[in-house]
Amino acid sequence: MDRQRWLLAIGVVVGLQMTVMPSSIAHVPFLKQISWTDALKSDLPNNFLGDNDSKLAIVQSSQRQTNTITLDSADLSLPHELTIETSAALDGQIVINDESVLSLSTGTTTLDVAPYIADDGATTIELTGTYRPGNAVIKLQFEGPGISISQQSAGMGQLDYSLNLEVD
What we know:
Helix content is 11%, strand content 46%. It has two helices and eleven strands. It has helices spanning 2-13, 36-41, and strands at residues 19-22, 56-59, 65-71, 81-86, 89-96, 99-104, 107-112, 122-132, 137-144, 147-154, 158-167. The strands form three sheets. Strands 3-11-8-5-6 form a five-stranded mixed β-sheet, with no helix packed on it. A four-stranded antiparallel β-sheet has the order 7-4-9-10, with no helix packed on it. The longest helix is centred in the first third of the chain and has 12 residues, at 2-13.
């Protein structure tokens, strides 16, 4: 039991969100169940899939963050800037209405989304990706005429953010 607590503490320190359960209740067929010692000896991301009858399941999870903003149609010709800032090693993308428009990386990325905003309905902006270390901070900011929102994501190594823009 001390070894399991020690390994769980290591997971918490490196920023992994883990769920640990005995194999007798971990009946999720797509997860590979491995012992702690096998997990230490191997590449953890590759151990989530496959078959094994060992003792433990490790699951990493993330949660989508979403904001919805209503924009004034009279302001659509003005800049509406989305800024993503991080010092983490970020590998991601910005997708607007199911079209990839920009890759994300370390540093500050600013995009004027005004040209992508549909003036007769809704526009969905999705930011997705991974970052290391997992406990790093990613700051998201959206600014437009009379609008300023900030969002911060940290601690999971997964960026999954959605901004819904509705035109009034």
